[in-house]
Amino acid sequence: MSKKVIVAGGGLAGLSAAARLAYNGYDVTLLEKAPKLGGRAITIPLKGFNFNFGAHAIYARDKSVLRRYESEIGLEVDWKDFSPSKAYYDLGSYTTLMPATLEGLYRTKILDSQNKWRFAYEVFKTMASIEKGEEGIPIGQYLEKEPPKVRDLLLTIASSNFFTNEPEKIPSPLFFQYYKRLFSTQRAVSYIGGGWQAIVESFSKIIEDHGGKIITKEKVSGIELDGNRISKIIGKETTYTADEYILCIPPKELHQLFADTPYESTFEIYRNYSSTQVVVYDVGLKERIPSPYTYVYQKEKKVFITDISYYDTTCIPEGGQLMQAIAYLNDEEAAANKANEKVADIESVYDKHFPGWRDQLVAKRISKKAVVQEIKCIHDQKLLPVKLYSLDNVYFAGDWCQGEGQLSELSFSSAYEVTNRIMNKTTAS
Ligand SMILES: Cc1cc2nc3c(=O)[nH]c(=O)nc-3n(C[C@H](O)[C@H](O)[C@H](O)COP(=O)(O)OP(=O)(O)OC[C@H]3O[C@@H](n4cnc5c(N)ncnc54)[C@H](O)[C@@H]3O)c2cc1C
Question: Taking every annotated instance into account, which residue ranges of this chain make up the domain Amine oxidase (predicted)?
Fold first, then answer.
C-alpha cells in the first residue's frame, strides 16, 4: 500500500511538494483553506487583464529547481526570457542601461571606466567563490572596502533581487551565495507565460492525474500529537491521518497549530520575524505606450516598473498593455503606514517614463501591503529548517524555510528537499 501524505497549504510550496509525491506514487491529499489554489501566487482577472501578484519573475531559471520539476514530473512552463537591453536605471537627472550583461556594463553610465573594471573584478571574484562574505557581517559593512560607486551599484542590484530597500542588511554570505548563482547564469530573469495561474494549474493537473486529492476551503485548525509524531490533522469537520505531514503554511499559522503543545515556543521566534513587504500598483492600459524600456528602476524612490505584457501577451486584451510597479517598504515605513506616499511615488515614475498612461487606463490594482517573503533575509533573522530534530513525521516548506535562492525559489526548493527526504525515508525503510 502506498504511503499516505497530507500536505497543508496550496501555495507554490504545497503544490510542488504534493505534485512530486503524487507523481512518485504516494497517496497525497492537499488541504487549502482558500477557495482557490496558489496562495500568494495568484492571477486575478479584471476587465480583460490578468493581474498577477508579483511579476512572476524567476531568477536564474537554468539553475532553478523548477528545471527539475520540469524534467522529472512534467511540469509545464512557458518561459519568457527578459531582455537585458531594455532594462534601465533612472538616476534622477539621467536614465542609463543596467549593467546586466557585458554589453550593458560597457554602455552604462552608472560607473566610469575605472569603476567598471572594479565591478567586473567583483563579479569575477563572486563567481569564482573568492568572495564569500563573512558570517555575522552584513553586506553593507562587508562592501565598505569597495569604491563607493561599486558598493552602491552592488547594493542597488541586491535591492531589486531581494525586493528590499535595506539591501545593506542582507547577510554577506547569503549575498555572495545568491550572486554566484545569478552572475553565472545565461537566464538572469524570466517570466512565466500565462502567469502564476499557468504554473498552479500545471502542478494541480499533475497531482490529480496521479490520483492525488485536492480539497479547497479546508482550513487546518489543529493537530494531535502522539509523542514526537503528528497522529492527526484537524480540518473544519474532518480529521485526516497520514504517515507523513508536510506543513506549507506560514509561521503565524504554524504557531497557532502548535499552540498548547511542547512545540509552541519553537514557532514563536519565526512568527515574530519581519517579512519583506511592498506596495504593488498594476495598471492595465487600452493601448501600449511606446517606450525603450521593459524594466525601469527609479533609484531614489526605490520603485521599479515592469512591462509585463511585453513578455506575456496572455495577460492583456489585444493591443493593450499591463505594467506592474513595486515600491519597497522597510519595517518603519510599513509600521508608519507610508503606503500612500509610495503610491504617489509610483504614479510619478509612471508619469515620467510612460506619459499618457492615465488617459489609457482601463483597470488598476493596488495592494498597499503585499508580503513578498514571509521572513525577510536580513541579519538576525533565520529561516525555518525543513525538518525539526524533535518532530519525526513532520516537514515544512515555503518561502519562510531554508532552501535555495529567494522568494518563490525558496518555496520550490524547500518543497523539493522535503520530498527528497520523504522518498529517501521510504526507500530506506
Ligand atoms: C507583490 C509580490 C511580488 C512577488 N514577485 C515575485 C517574483 O517576481 N518572483 C518570485 O519568485 N516570487 C515573487 N513573489 C513571492 C512569491 O509569490 C512567494 O514566494 C510564493 O508565492 C510563496 O508561496 P508559498 O507556498 O511558500 O506560500 P503562500 O503562497 O503563502 O502559501 C501558503 C498557503 O497556505 C494556505 N494556508 C494558510 N494557512 C492554512 C491553514 N491553516 N490550512 C490550510 N491552508 C492554509 C494559504 O491560503 C496559502 O494558499 C512575490 C510576492 C508578492 C506578494
Answer: 12-405
